[in-house]
Task: structure prediction
Amino acid sequence: MRKFSALFSWMVIAIGFLLASEKQAHAYADPGSSLLILQTVGSIVTATGLYFRRRIASFFKRGKSTETAAEATEQTVSPAAK
Amino acid sequence: MTQPSGAEFRTFRDPAGSLTIESDRVVRRVRPGYEDATREFLSSKLRQQWEDRGDMVATTVASDGPDGIELHHPRIWFSTYPWEWTLGQWRAAAELTLKLQQEAIAAGWILKDATPLNILFRGSQPVLVDVLSFEKRDPQSPVWLAYAQFVRTFLLPLIAHKWLHWPLSVTSSRRDGFEPHEIFSALPRLRRFRPELLWPVTLPVLLEGSAENPENTRKARQMHRDPEITTLVLGKSAKGLLKQVRRAAPPPGETAWSKYESTAAHYTAAEIAAKQKFVKEAIATAAPASVLDVGANTGTYSLMAAEQGAQVLALEGDASAADRIWQRSQAAGANVTPVVANLAWPTPAYGWENSETHALLERMNKKFDLVLMLAVVHHLLLHDQVPLENIVHLIARLTRKWLLLEWVPLQDPMFQKLLRGREDLYGSLSEAQWAAAAAPYFEQVRREELSNGRVMLLYRLK
Result:
């Protein structure tokens, strides 16, 4: 539950941050209103997906590197223990 | 009526430049403030690659100095507008637009306007003709400002065509396409929540309340993100649109017209062979560089003319039959451009002061060395009630030299089918009456009567 509320807070902060920055745009075609907002919803979904993919990937990488280090330690230690 | 000239046609909407169409070329002038961006795009590998592939019109820099930049493009042989395209052409134009957008994103550029009006067809191949459509993208912005324009002008007409059976030709009255709420209100309630309609139609309508607040749209427009994320987001949005376009524009169904040739009971195989032999020989005699095939059906004779070296415009009122022409032309790599239009009720000029697009007859005026009118005159006469003299007068305005005509006599089952009890008006029509109407403009070069009573005629303009 704590994890879920941390995740929710992160999303709110991220969306707030994303909407707060300003940039100039030069296109002259009507960018729409609801379709523009829909596009930003889509981009938030994509960015959130990317964030979690990265977190999951780094979790497994960390797990793998920890495991490798543990194995290496064991291998180093084992002969002496024997 | 005159050919479109520079004085008559000049674009004005794009703040980056204007376009003038001259008789043998297209001249584009870049406005002050946009020179550097234009130079950068023109010198990019991307532009060169697209030109080499034929995806973008060729550009030469005619002048680049203190007075600004002037660019020249070759003219595409015949301009057709989206409301004259077949479903397959719409799909091909949308796919090209999104393909270029995807490649532009990867190279640090972005498409700043995405409308079918920026696409023309060279034969059956779509070509992007607006070289000022690209700008360097802000690496931190995940917003594609032309996204909504793409949805309005490409995707929603295709969705309305698929789900509401609105003809694509209705886009002639909507320069900037459809708004989601127009499609939404026409859809049955339950259908609005189908997955392929939810994102482009229903969700935008549900978001309309939030979008009414200008602050929300301003913030959405000015979003700012990590460059890696923006590239991913923009790429995904183009990929998603591509998927939606392909779902909205599946291969076309068959209609009575597109089955016409295979089920033409009024022709035996021998008669078809005799007709084809006459047409082939007549095309060889005329050796045309340009051909107009009126009532082209599924394009058999258009393709025949293209095989003999001509550029062909295939005019067909039935959208499914015309789409078959496009498919056959594309499969054969033939120089045949279909146009969904009716000679008796031709496309008018549209836009500001009726000068942003040209009427079909204006575009076709004296454009063709040879005009094919195969089994068409009886349609114009009986279905559209156009007198023979008016038909001949129009053909003489279209052709520069030759006319190849198939006369369908009164006794023919197809003539009888269209007669519908009007014997008092048309019941005594004869080939002699046609010959008398044609005589002021044309001289007969060759005549052959087929065994089914139809008559093949080759004429030369006097």
